[in-house]
Amino acid sequence: MGVSFGAIAVAGGLPVWVPVVMSVVVYAGSAQFSAVGVLLAGGGPLAAAATGLLLNTRNAAFGLAVADLLGPGRATRLLGAHLVTDETVAFALAQPDPARRRAAFWISGIGLFAAWNIGVSAGAFAGSALGDTADYGLDAAFPAVLVALVLPALRENARLRGPAALGVVLALAATPFAPAGVPVLLAPAGLGLYGYGRKGAAG
Prior knowledge:
This protein is 72% helix and 0% strand. With 203 residues, the chain is mainly alpha-helical.
């Protein structure tokens, strides 16, 4: 994933330093893919950042789940918070006792952070030699990755399908008129509208 992110970002026209620095500072695969996808589609930095933040809100819940594993001290807790991902939380919570949970979190967190950033750097430098992404069909890679991230949740939870479908309709309807990056920010409104409609029907 890191290699593909770096390669596609640079082949799409971004400077090498953008995916490399983003991977160190942001370190969130889905947020990075979505933000760069917005930038490559012509959206502005604010729309890209808002899209990434929106997709990464689940990390707040993950952080609460492993808060007691991060250890004492502000610097340690800040570093630990930066390493919170789906994988590190899953590895940590699968362990039978607090000591092993803490060790699993830090070992997996540091290892995955290093692997992701090495992969992104390698992909970014390789991507500079790819040329036009359309020649390889790589322009479709970002949407494909985002669909792959969403589909498992839609399969497992039928209640998400209605709001997701409404969000897609809203985003597609806004695409011809709204600036690049804005339609995806409108998609979560589908959740509120769907819930409001269900509440009205029940009333």
